[in-house]
Amino acid sequence: MNHIETINYLIEKYNYKSYLEIGYDRGDCYNKINIEHKECCDISNINNAYPETEITYLMTSDELFERMPIDKKYDIVFIDGMHNQYYLDRDIINSLKHLNPGGIILCHDVLPVNYMYTAEYQIGGMWHGDCWKSVPKLQDLNVEYYTYDNNDYGLLMIKYKDNPYQLQNIRRETSVQFDTVFTCLDTTCDEYLRPVPVDVYEYAYTKQGYYIMHIIHDKEFFEIFG
């Protein structure tokens, strides 16, 4: 399932009612999400391909969370904004503080196509940035998370935490290198990185790169998320 299908699946499965999207961009995802109440945030409306849709919060996500009442909550949050680990670190922490019990946070672009697309942004080109660097850092926090390899550049999925206010902003630079994390990825398949199949119980022992990313596939996704 791509990220849009995954979001809509979770909404229907858990009967979610409220949705926040960080990084509206063209609106291709936001306008296909089926939910009772949804809001979006972006710094610009210039790329909006759906003129009938108004961006709820025309500002940075940092500004949004700074202004947002602490009692405002969402069932599901999708983060696809600035593809930089430090922005994503902050968006994760802030989203956890505004997540309803039983809610889920999803972050796009955490399984880059290849190293080239993690480098500096090229106008008009594909760019995943270094979002993947936020994933290993989550080992330092008491959160349950998985990286879903959905053949759509990866979805980091973080489950609700009972007391997110104890979490601090993630400030450290990950010491894990790209080649270490993706050492088990197959680069011969249509020029895209694809995880080599491996038994889920072997991750911690034989696939260190897999373990720190907690990579799951369709089978494990449906086992964990129903």
Number of strands: 10
Principal-axis shape equals globular
State which percent range the strand residues make up: 15-25%
Which architecture name does CATH use? Answer: 3-Layer(aba) Sandwich
* The CATH topology: Rossmann fold
Question: What's the helix count?
Answer: 8
Rounded to an integer, what's the Rg over CA atoms?
Answer: 17 Å
Strand order across the biggest sheet? 3-2-1-4-5-7-6-10
Q: How far is the N terminus from the C terminus?
A: 14 Å
- Uncertain stretches of 5 or more adjacent residues: 186-207
Largest sheet: 8 strands, mixed
Structural domain tally: 1
Keywords:
26% helix, 10 strands, single chain, Rossmann fold, two-stranded antiparallel ribbon, 226 residues, alpha/beta, 22% strand, 8-stranded mixed sheet
Can you put this structure into words, describing what you see?
With 226 residues, the chain is α/β, with parallel strands linked by helices. The chain has a single domain (3-225), classed as Rossmann fold, CATH 3.40.50. 26% of the residues lie in helices and 22% in strands. The model is unreliable at 186-207 (pLDDT under 50). It has helices at 3-14, 61-67, 85-97, 134-137, 178-181, 203-206, 208-213, 218-225; strands at 18-22, 37-42, 57-58, 74-79, 99-108, 145-148, 155-159, 185-189, 192-195, 215-216. It has an 8-stranded mixed sheet, with helices on both faces. The chain has a two-stranded antiparallel sheet with strand order 8-9.
